[in-house]
């Protein structure tokens, strides 16, 4: 049948059948978007090439010399700023752990059909830029403004809706929200939003609009696709659902020993084995990380490092396991200061969002 409309090539979201494997389209998404190799958890700051990437549409072509950020809508003084003008403003740097809202989706049953993340959709970077509050203050926020809507240069179609990627934040915005032009001390790489992006500490990645070119202050809540249709926690397609916002607590383990090539099962030797990793939460500092070596039957507390000056970066943790011969399943879970703890079994939702069920790592000790 001939395809004659956007709806013919951009279908509604769906859930995979019980016996349905990963599709060619999902493999295509997985080839375009990549996660963090878990051994890279050893780095305090993730090298840009190892930081997770999710690009909804295409990476747009961008010229820093001609790039402009416009600020309009419910403001007293509309602005159009070049990158040089933004760089001339007082800059700050925040270390921020960023995680995709769909991290862990591929492990749900039934599986929401989309980017098939396991647990690796995360990374931590030092983002440098201008506080969003400073730019909004220069524009002069009108009294009736309730939200700031951010538009990126990436353009595509999703579930039949042609669109620029757009998201909003309620006003007033948090003090740490950045208009970032540098990552780990260098220019933003193309896949990370060059030449300008939004960074919203503590929130899942969908809020961090890349290739940012326009900010509009509105006197009504934004109801665009990425805000009101996508990134909602819902059980059925006809309910409005709740918005996805802050990152739920998660701990990840650097897989110990060495791996089998295909299965990634780990092999360790009997005796003391160092276990270490990172933990984070968008609701506050991680206060406890527990490890189980028997698939959650018993738990042992680890030593957790404080956040130090980096209020939005992940925290290191470590312990020692005295491994004995045989099969083991290592499991790790985090709890934060707000009282949130990772679940042992994940509540299900249609989009596969906010999935922070505990990591499980099979290990053969021999």
Question: Can you describe what's shown?
Answer:
Helices cover 8% and strands 35% of the residues. It contains 5 helices and 22 strands. A 6-stranded mixed β-sheet has the order 14-15-22-21-17-18, with no helix packed on it. A 5-stranded mixed β-sheet has the order 2-1-10-5-6.
What's the layout of helices and strands?
Blueprint: H1 6-9, H2 24-32, E1 68-73, E2 79-82, H3 83-87, E3 92-99, E4 122-131, H4 132-139, E5 147-158, E6 161-170, E7 178-183, E8 186-187, E9 197-199, E10 212-218, H5 225-228, E11 232-233, E12 242-243, E13 250-253, E14 258-259, E15 266-268, E16 271-280, E17 286-292, E18 300-301, E19 303-304, E20 315-323, E21 326-336, E22 359-365
Parallel strand pairs: 1-10, 15-22
Antiparallel strand pairs: 1-2, 3-4, 4-7, 5-6, 5-10, 7-8, 7-9, 11-12, 13-16, 14-15, 16-20, 17-18, 17-21, 19-20, 21-22
Neighbour order of strands in the largest sheet: 14-15-22-21-17-18
Instruction: Assign the structural class, choosing from mainly alpha, mainly beta, alpha/beta, alpha+beta, or little secondary structure.
Output: mainly beta
Helical percentage: under 10%
Q: Separation of termini?
A: 57 Å
Q: Could you tell me the radius of gyration in angstroms?
A: 21 Å
Number of beta strands: 22
Strand content: 35-45%
The biggest beta sheet is recorded as: 6 strands, mixed
- Secondary-structure element order, as H and E? HHEEHEEHEEEEEEHEEEEEEEEEEEE
Question: Notable features of this structure?
Answer:
366 residues; mainly beta; 6-stranded mixed beta sheet; 22 strands; globular
């Amino acid at each position: 049948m001939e395809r004659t409309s956007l709806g013919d090539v951009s279908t509604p979201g769906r859930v995979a059948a019980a016996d349905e494997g990963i599709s060619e389209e999902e493999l295509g998404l997985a080839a375009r978007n990549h996660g963090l190799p878990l051994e890279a958890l050893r780095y305090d700051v993730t090298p840009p090439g190892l930081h997770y990437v999710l690009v909804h549409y295409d990476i747009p072509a961008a010229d820093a010399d001609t790039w402009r950020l416009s600020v309009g809508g419910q403001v007293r003084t509309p602005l159009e700023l070049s990158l040089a003008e933004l760089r001339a403003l007082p800059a700050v740097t925040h270390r921020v752990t960023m995680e995709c809202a769909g991290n862990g989706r591929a492990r749900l049953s039934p599986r929401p059909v989309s980017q098939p993340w396991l647990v690796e959709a995360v990374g931590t970077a030092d983002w440098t830029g201008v506080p969003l509050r400073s730019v909004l203050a220069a524009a002069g926020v009108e009294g009736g403004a309730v939200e700031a809507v951010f538009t990126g240069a990436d353009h595509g179609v999703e579930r039949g809706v042609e669109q620029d990627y757009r998201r909003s934040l309620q006003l007033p915005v948090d003090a740490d929200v950045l208009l970032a032009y540098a990552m780990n001390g260098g220019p933003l790489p193309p896949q990370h939003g060059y030449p300008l992006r939004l960074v919203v500490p503590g929130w899942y990645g969908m809020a961090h609009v890349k290739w940012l070119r326009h900010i509009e202050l509105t006197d009504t809540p934004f109801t665009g696709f990425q805000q009101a249709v996508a990134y909602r926690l819902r059980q059925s397609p006809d309910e409005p659902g709740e918005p996805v916002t802050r990152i739920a607590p998660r701990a990840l383990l650097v897989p110990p020993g060495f791996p089998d090539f295909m299965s990634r099962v780990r092999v360790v030797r009997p005796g003391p084995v160092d276990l270490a990793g990172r933990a984070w939460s968008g609701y506050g500092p991680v206060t406890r990380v527990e490890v189980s070596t028997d698939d959650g039957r018993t738990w042992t507390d680890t030593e957790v490092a404080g956040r130090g000056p980096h209020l939005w970066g992940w925290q290191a943790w470590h312990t020692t396991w005295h491994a004995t011969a045989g099969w083991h399943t290592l499991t790790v879970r985090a709890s934060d200061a707000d009282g949130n703890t990772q679940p042992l079994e994940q509540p299900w939702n249609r989009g596969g969002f906010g999935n922070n069920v505990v990591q499980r790592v099979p290990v053969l000790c021999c």
